[in-house]
């Protein structure tokens, strides 16, 4: 990365040097606007169908090309008013931005340290409060059925059917459900029964203001600007669509559901499978190369690329580290403000 006052050598040895540039990223707040550097997102590995090497060029403040393309696919570090900035140009064919949540829009810690612990800490109280409700009874029935299927597993916790009306009986049954839920969560299981109860608990907690969705500070301003520039914004997360809507509907920024054009979860397919991205494009009614997918997980990025989707890997505090090869191969951003939409000029 360049240091203030130093020429920036952005490409392989012998390629063009760029210096003294100031940027106008889509969501940045840089004070001057002389030259904008842009970088095309890289296309699929080993596939020359698009601008694989990522044409990089200087542009003037109106976005007109003003320099010779460099042959690199790396984001460009640029010294601007003493700050080192990076911008990544979104190809003109992109009309849809598809966002992962965990590690991309939202700290992994929010999910790991807040959402899931909330279940363990509150499941007993939730069951005691909602026990008589039909929905809660359905959740318990499903968990009991799952427990029967799990009975051969080490440490499995059975949930007895109610056989009496006494307070002790109820207490024991609730405790068995609590123990079962905690056991399943300790194994990071994703059974429908567990997910259903978790979903209902989170819904109650978000609606009551006990939980609020968290987003990195650059996310909401960027999404607003993308939409103003005519982009559509969709979510693709392994969290259920219902949970996604809670996160956006009850966030620290208020109800921001209106910023999202639609939601996808693993019902459309797993995030590490290319076909999922083809199905998403089909569902949106666009081509896969009209989509830019932002994720922190390179396996997901790779699957999306395979389907001809543009990708950028999002590096956030608390995310798993990337290998040197991954850092070299993928276009990386650390903030949504680093994405530059040519159409916004
Ligand atoms: Mg993620």
UniProtKB/TrEMBL annotation:
GO terms for molecular function: acireductone synthase activity; magnesium ion binding. Keywords: Amino-acid biosynthesis, Cytoplasm, Hydrolase, Magnesium, Metal-binding, Methionine biosynthesis, Nucleus. Substrate binds at residues 237-238, 271. It is found in: Cytoplasm; Nucleus. It catalyses: 5-methylsulfanyl-2,3-dioxopentyl phosphate + H2O = 1,2-dihydroxy-5-(methylsulfanyl)pent-1-en-3-one + phosphate. Binds 1 Mg(2+) ion per subunit. SUPFAM superfamilies: HAD-like. Mg(2+) binds at residues 100, 102, 296. Pathway: Amino-acid biosynthesis; L-methionine biosynthesis via salvage pathway; L-methionine from S-methyl-5-thio-alpha-D-ribose 1-phosphate: step 4/6; Amino-acid biosynthesis; L-methionine biosynthesis via salvage pathway; L-methionine from S-methyl-5-thio-alpha-D-ribose 1-phosphate: step 3/6. The keyword Transferase does not apply. The keyword Amino-acid biosynthesis applies. Its main location: cytoplasm. One of its GO terms (cellular component) is nucleus. Pfam families: Hydrolase (PF00702). Monomer. PANTHER family: ENOLASE-PHOSPHATASE E1 (PTHR20371). Bifunctional enzyme that catalyzes the enolization of 2,3-diketo-5-methylthiopentyl-1-phosphate (DK-MTP-1-P) into the intermediate 2-hydroxy-3-keto-5-methylthiopentenyl-1-phosphate (HK-MTPenyl-1-P), which is then dephosphorylated to form the acireductone 1,2-dihydroxy-3-keto-5-methylthiopentene (DHK-MTPene). HAMAP family: Salvage_MtnC (MF_01681), Salvage_MtnC_euk (MF_03117). This is Enolase-phosphatase E1.
């Amino acid at each position: 990365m360049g240091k203030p006052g130093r020429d920036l050598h952005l490409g392989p040895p012998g390629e063009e040097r760029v210096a003294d540039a100031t940027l106008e990223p889509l969501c940045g707040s840089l004070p001057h606007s002389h030259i904008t550097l842009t970088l095309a997102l890289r296309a699929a590995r080993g596939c020359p169908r698009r601008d694989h090497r990522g044409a990089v060029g200087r542009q003037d403040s109106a976005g007109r090309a003003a320099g010779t393309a460099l042959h690199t696919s790396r984001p460009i570090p640029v010294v601007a008013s003493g700050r080192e900035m990076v911008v990544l140009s979104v190809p003109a064919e992109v009309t849809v931005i598809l966002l992962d949540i965990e590690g991309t829009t939202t700290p992994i810690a929010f999910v790991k340290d807040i959402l899931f612990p909330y279940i363990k800490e509150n499941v007993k109280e939730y069951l005691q409060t909602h026990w008589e409700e039909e929905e809660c009874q359905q959740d318990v029935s499903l968990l009991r059925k799952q427990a029967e299927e799990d009975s051969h597993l080490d440490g499995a916790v059975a949930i007895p059917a109610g056989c009496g009306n006494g307070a002790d009986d109820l207490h024991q049954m609730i405790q068995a459900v609590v123990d079962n839920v905690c056991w399943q969560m300790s194994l990071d299981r994703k059974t429908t029964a567990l997910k259903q109860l978790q979903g209902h608990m989170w819904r109650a907690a978000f609606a009551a203001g006990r939980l609020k969705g968290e987003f990195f500070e650059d996310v909401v301003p960027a999404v607003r600007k993308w939409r103003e520039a005519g982009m559509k914004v969709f979510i693709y997360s392994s969290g259920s669509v219902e949970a996604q809507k809670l996160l956006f509907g009850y966030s620290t920024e208020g109800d921001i559901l209106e910023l999202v054009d639609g939601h996808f979860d693993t019902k459309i397919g797993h995030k590490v499978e290319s076909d999922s991205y083809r199905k998403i494009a089909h569902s949106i009614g666009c081509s896969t190369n009209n989509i830019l997918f932002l994720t922190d997980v390179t396996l997901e990025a790779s699957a999306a690329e395979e389907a001809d989707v543009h990708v950028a890997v999002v590096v956030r505090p608390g995310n798993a580290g990337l290998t040197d090869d991954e850092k070299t191969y993928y276009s990386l951003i650390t903030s949504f403000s680093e994405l530059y939409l040519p159409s916004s000029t």
